[in-house]
Description:
Elements: H1 3-53, E1 70-71, E2 94-99, E3 105-106, E4 111-116, E5 121-126, H2 134-143, E6 151-159, H3 165-183, E7 190-197, H4 204-216, H5 223-229, E8 238-246, E9 249-258, E10 271-276, H6 282-294, E11 311-316, H7 327-349, E12 357-365, H8 368-380, H9 382-389, H10 395-403, E13 415-418, E14 421-425, E15 428-429, H11 435-442, E16 446-452, E17 458-465, H12 469-476
Parallel strand pairs: 1-3, 6-7, 10-11, 12-16
Antiparallel strand pairs: 2-4, 4-6, 5-11, 8-9, 9-10, 12-17, 13-14, 13-16, 14-15
Amino acid sequence: MGKKDELKKIEKALEKAQKKADKALKKAAKAAAKVARKLEDAGREWAVEADLAHPVGEPHQAEPTGAEPRVAKAHPRSPFAPAEFPTLPTIEGADFAAVAAGVRYAGRLDVMLARLAPGSVIAGALTRSATCSAAVEDCRAKLAKTVDGGAAILVNSGNANAFTGEVGQHAVQTLCEAVAERVGISKDRVFTASTGVIGEPLPYERILARLDAAVGELSPHGLPDCARAIMTTDTYPKGSAATIALDGQTIHIAGIAKGSGMIAPNMATMLAFIFTDATIDQAMLQAMVLRQCDESFNCITVDGDTSTSDTVLVAATGRSARIKPGAQAAAFESALGRVMRDLAQQIVKDGEGAHKFVTVRVTGAANDADARKVALTIANSPLVKTALAGDDPNWGRIVAVVGHSGARIERDKLALRFGEISVAQNGAVDPTYREEAGAAYMRKAEIEIAVDLGLGKGQATIWTCDLTERYVAINADYRS
């Protein structure tokens, strides 16, 4: 064997050893990251437990009746949770309170009450689920009515009051009458919402027992407490705000939302309540809410399941500038849309067990409906979402689910990107694509999957998250 042959043999051996070393390093890095996540989660459990035990504001004592409430389990805090709850502006004409009633769990806020001044208008969107809750049915009927005077919104967590028949309807009517009596309004102006376990009768007596306390605590500054009271498996309270100047006056918008699992709404979100001091006609506000739902809460999915209780209500107290058709209406709707999108994205970022926030962007579809089909198919695919959880740039899974989306697809026109990285072009892998680059990109906390179908101008954007073993753990013992 000559010297050249020996050198080549040595070079090949070194190259083979280097590849083995690189593979071992990658495996070790993945294992280290997994351990780091578990340690991080363990630390967060203490933080969340402290959060639940000491909510915003003064501690509240539950006064349960009947069976004893349970102790709430703490969930690891989302890696996307903000350091602090956002500062929300005061909404003139709106007062808020939150109390602990022990609906399901002891020692935590679980009922919110909002009182709205006379002249307020309310718009909303509700789940299209055929097994919707009693509260949703009641809200739907009331949104169709024109009733003057003040208004109120009562919300509980811990029990969805869904699939509970006449017992559930009786609970809603009893609570509406009790709230109406205490705040001096018509029962037709009391809107309720419930979230939590489905199929169990709502222990509404516990809520009734705390209504006087709630009314006594009503304050213009109580909205942050309300954000905590509506949480279920959420790991942090969600709030958002915006202000705009019209006719020399400042219009304020403040909203809260809850949602973490069972998120693939067909109208709105799990629960969202938004308040503004603007003066606006109910019909105009209703149209805005429906349009902006389609651009926000209808563009999110965590697990593909629509809740029985999905509700978004927007209340305008009429204490600031009047919104006129045209440029003013457009400016106000834009600000309202920003708040709704922010709340919607926070819900995805707090998806049960999620470690990644994913934007799925589809362009070049034959029409917008086809683009949405493709985006939702990708965003709801367990195979895609588990690959994301494992930092695996498994683009073949994405191509596969696009093919069965039901949209018009021409394989050889398909293009795929991870962020700015071109993965596939013209129905085949891009010659410039490198698996190492895709893997590095997938390790990011926020990623984009972009698909172009090459057929037309249809487009859609959906926000989702990864699917981890933590999601399975949370939902495996949700009721236990």
